[in-house]
């Protein structure tokens, strides 16, 4: 499921809502390619920490955890940067996953 977001100057971003298969398979790389350096670094550091503790056997745990939460985190940060749903359908999709928009 995808939602469209738009900022004040008319830039559009189409974001995926829900489980992140790309994060599941590729770890921190999707965040890195989206330009979300903060969360790419957090995922990388968490994966390295778990790898050290488990001798490399538990890094998949980090991918699974972030697969469930990363898309929501990314959408919330875009909203904080001024993006808004481009349509009522996108607004309903965001509300269905618990993202409510503050009205002025």
End-to-end Cα distance, whole Å, is: 28 Å
Share of β-strand residues: 5-15%
Subunit arrangement of the protein? single chain
Largest sheet: 3 strands, antiparallel
Category by helix and strand content = mainly alpha
Count of domain modules: 1
Q: Which shape, going by the Cα principal axes?
A: elongated
Residue ranges: pLDDT <50 for 5 or more in a row? none
Average pLDDT reading: 91
How many H/I helical runs?
Answer: 5
Radius of gyration: 15 Å
Count of DSSP strands: 3
Helicity level? 55-70%
Strands of the biggest beta sheet: in what spatial order? 2-1-3
Order of helices and strands: EEHHHHEH
Outline:
This protein is mostly helical. Helix content is 58%, strand content 12%.
Descriptive notes:
The chain is mostly helical. The protein has one domain (2-96). It is built from 5 helices and 3 strands; from the N terminus they run ββααααβα. It has helices at 21-26, 29-33, 37-54, 59-80, 88-96, and strands at residues 2-6, 12-16, 84-85. It has a 3-stranded antiparallel beta sheet with strand order 2-1-3. A hairpin with a 5-residue loop joins strand 1 and strand 2. Helix 3 runs antiparallel to helix 4. The longest helix has 22 residues, at 59-80. It is elongated. 20% of the residues are buried. The model has no long low-confidence stretch (mean pLDDT 91).
């Amino acid at each position: 499921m995808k939602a469209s977001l738009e900022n004040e100057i008319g830039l559009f971003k189409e974001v995926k809502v829900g489980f992140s298969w790309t994060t599941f398979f590729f770890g921190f790389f999707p965040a890195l390619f989206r330009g979300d350096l903060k969360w790419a670094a957090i995922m990388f550091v968490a994966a390295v920490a778990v790898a050290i503790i488990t001798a490399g056997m538990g890094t998949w745990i980090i991918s699974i955890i972030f697969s469930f939460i990363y898309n929501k985190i990314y959408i919330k940060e875009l909203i904080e940067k001024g993006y808004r749903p481009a349509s009522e359908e996108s607004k309903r999709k965001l509300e269905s996953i618990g993202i409510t928009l503050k009205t002025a």
